[in-house]
Structure formats: structure tokens, C-alpha cells
Amino acid sequence: MGGHGHGAPYTVPHYSQFKIDGIRELEEVQSELAKRGLKDPWIRNEAWRYHPGFGTKWLKARKLFFRGFPLGLGLTIATVAFNKLTGGDDHGHNGEHH
């Protein structure tokens, strides 16, 4: 069911492949916890978020805010051009300007 004979839709990576060594943000969290005598045994579960394949914080923000920008800009230009060509840009004001 749900695979059409292609196998599992995803593979769960082995937990041992995730290390916080070299990830500055997670190392800082670990050191702050250690100052208070605490330890987070599950911190390695956050390591995937810092993998280069997921991009930097700024790249993620750019994707979030500008994902549809090229399409939106193209549609805006097409709409304005269509209105100019068909003469439908007066919005029913009949030449009256306020």
C-alpha cells in the first residue's frame, strides 16, 4: 500500500550519524547547559537542522519570503500589459481624476 513496489518512501537514518561536534550553535547550548549542571541527551536530534543541505538561516529566510516572487512578478507584468493592450486601465472613472 502506498509504495507501488518502489520500496519505502523514506529511510530513517541511523542515530549515530548525527554529531554535534563542529556545530557552533549546538555546542553553545551544550556548554550553557553544562554550566548549570544539566545535559541534554537528545541534542543530537537537532543536528540535522544544521546540515549544509538544508541551507543557512539567511537562505531559508530568502526562500520563505521570495519563493513565489518570480511568478508573482511575471503575472503582475502580464496583467498590466493585458490591461494596457485592451484599454481596461481606466477602472470605470471615465477620465475623472480625483
From TrEMBL:
Does Mitochondrion appear among the keywords? yes
User: Record's superkingdom?
Assistant: Eukaryota
Q: Which GO terms describe its biological process?
A: electron transport chain; mitochondrial respiratory chain complex I assembly
Please tell me where this protein is predominantly located. mitochondrion
What subcellular locations does the record give? Mitochondrion inner membrane
Q: Which residues cross the membrane?
A: 64-82
Keywords attached to this entry: Electron transport, Membrane, Mitochondrion, Mitochondrion inner membrane, Respiratory chain, Transmembrane, Transmembrane helix, Transport
Topology of the protein relative to the lipid bilayer: Single-pass membrane protein
Q: What is one term from the GO cellular component aspect held by the record?
A: mitochondrial inner membrane
**Family classification:** Belongs to the complex I NDUFB3 subunit family.
Role noted for this protein? Accessory subunit of the mitochondrial membrane respiratory chain NADH dehydrogenase (Complex I), that is believed not to be involved in catalysis. Complex I functions in the transfer of electrons from NADH to the respiratory chain. The immediate electron acceptor for the enzyme is believed to be ubiquinone.
Q: What is this protein called?
A: NADH dehydrogenase [ubiquinone] 1 beta subcomplex subunit 3
Species, as recorded: Pieris brassicae
